[in-house]
């Protein structure tokens, strides 16, 4: 199996009478895009804003972040089950608008939404401040409930990313990276002396807006499943998750999953990457056990010798993380865990809600309780008052001069448990 990722580097974005890409500038026909989004009758109004690196801009509250992509060849289309049919993806040529992102914003859906600062100290905590951001501000119709509101904003973001990605259809990529994935039986023949490594991909599926989707299917309804790594790059996993902004995996994180990227790049060199086992994080212990047992059975069937496990969210998902670790280690499969912590503002509290003795190789992506003082910005896209009610904010977070005090938990993607950012925790 082969997937080519054709990157088209985006340096800036402007409004224009035609949506196209010229000399690294993304031109957007604003009215055409707004009309496309307003085909959804749950949307009352749409505004399109831009936020560029280094600008004095704060975006809040943010629901999701998506990278514009478009499948030029191969079966299916990006975001299968939402934008396109449920055909399998992960092969052919996919264009990527590199250096830009779609950031969905507007009236708050739930308290677990986040902040991006495009400059100042807050900009150091995620990669999105270094991107050109296209921000659809979605106003829903009056009286729309939280669940249809979330769905409306989620799909509007995906449609925007698809619409912008399609503008690259006739562009020549600036750079192409080719990914190959061998069927398991072929990989064993090709690399008989290399350790067989799988990626166990925990996806939050706890309901009450803690949901994600696989080919459009709510992940609550799956048993652990083996997929090819490249399917993820084409958007087969979509975030519908309103978990804490610091450690929810936005759709862009799935599209650029660094664990999968690194395993593919090392495949055939120092390891044999046998595949991705997607599994879910449930709210009930019985369901957690079912998924963990079945994930370890899949690993056993395909002869896994080593595994990387990533978490999404925190609190009771740590039980999913530890159950998977325990079962795999008891099979003799060496595991490495990637997580983050909520260790208190002084770093002295217990960082994880659950542990197991088998978890002896753990990578941590930082402490969500760390307190930040962020200066005022000249422009706010969205609704600044939401800062006091989002995760990591509190009554009194907004100061008279427009500066804010929040925990790192408020900053979108700052502690991404896929290892997307650069933070960690040092033990003393």
Any chance you could write out the topology, listing elements then pairs?
Elements: E1 2-9, E2 12-15, E3 20-22, E4 25-28, H1 30-37, E5 43-51, E6 57-66, E7 69-73, E8 92-98, E9 100-106, E10 114-117, E11 132-140, H2 146-166, E12 175-180, H3 184-190, E13 196-204, E14 210-214, E15 217-218, E16 225-227, H4 230-233, E17 237-241, H5 251-255, H6 258-266, E18 272-281, H7 285-301, E19 306-310, H8 317-330, E20 334-341, E21 362-367, E22 371-374, E23 379-382, E24 404-407
Parallel strand pairs: 1-8, 2-4, 6-23, 9-11, 13-18, 13-19, 19-20, 20-21
Antiparallel strand pairs: 1-12, 3-4, 5-11, 6-9, 6-10, 7-8, 14-15, 14-17, 16-18, 22-24
């Amino acid at each position: 199996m082969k997937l080519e990722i054709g990157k088209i580097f985006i340096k800036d974005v402007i409004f224009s009478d035609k949506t196209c890409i010229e000399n690294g500038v993304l031109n957007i026909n604003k009215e055409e895009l707004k009309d496309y989004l307003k085909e959804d009758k749950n949307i009352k109004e749409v505004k399109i804003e831009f936020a560029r690196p280094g600008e004095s801009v704060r975006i809040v509250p943010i629901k999701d972040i998506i990278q514009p992509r478009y499948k030029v060849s191969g079966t299916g289309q990006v975001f299968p089950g939402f934008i396109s049919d449920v055909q399998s993806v992960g092969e052919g040529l996919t264009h990527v608008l590199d250096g830009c992102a779609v950031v969905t914003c507007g009236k708050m859906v739930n308290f677990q939404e986040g902040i991006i600062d495009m400059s100042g100290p807050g900009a150091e905590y995620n990669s999105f401040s270094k991107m050109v951001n296209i921000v659809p501000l979605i106003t829903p119709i009056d009286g729309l409930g939280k669940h249809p509101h979330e769905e409306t904003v989620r799909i509007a973001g995906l449609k925007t990313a698809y619409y912008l990605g399609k503008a690259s259809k006739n562009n020549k990529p600036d750079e192409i990276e080719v990914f190959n994935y061998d069927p398991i039986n072929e990989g064993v023949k090709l690399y008989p002396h290399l350790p067989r490594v799988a990626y166990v991909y925990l996806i939050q599926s706890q309901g009450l807006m803690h949901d994600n989707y696989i080919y459009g299917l709510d992940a609550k309804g799956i048993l652990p499943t083996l997929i090819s790594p490249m399917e993820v790059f084409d958007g087969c996993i979509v975030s519908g998750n309103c978990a804490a902004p610091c450690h929810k995996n936005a759709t862009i994180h799935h599209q650029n999953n660094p664990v999968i990227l690194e395993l593919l790049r090392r495949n055939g060199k120092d390891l044999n990457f046998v595949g991705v086992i997607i599994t879910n994080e449930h709210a009930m212990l019985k369901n957690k056990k079912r998924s963990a047992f079945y994930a370890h059975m899949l690993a056993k069937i395909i002869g896994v010798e080593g595994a990387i496990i990533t978490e999404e969210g925190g609190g009771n998902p740590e039980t999913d993380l530890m159950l998977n670790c325990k079962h795999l280690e008891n099979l003799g499969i060496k595991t490495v865990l990637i997580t983050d912590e909520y260790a208190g503002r002084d770093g002295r509290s217990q960082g994880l809600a659950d542990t197991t003795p088998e978890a002896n190789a753990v990578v941590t992506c930082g402490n969500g309780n760390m307190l930040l003082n962020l200066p005022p910005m000249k422009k706010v896209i969205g609704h600044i008052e939401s800062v006091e009610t989002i995760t990591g904010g509190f009554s009194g977070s907004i100061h008279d001069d427009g500066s804010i005090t929040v925990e790192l938990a408020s900053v979108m993607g700052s502690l991404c448990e896929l290892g997307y950012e650069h933070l960690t925790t040092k033990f003393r």
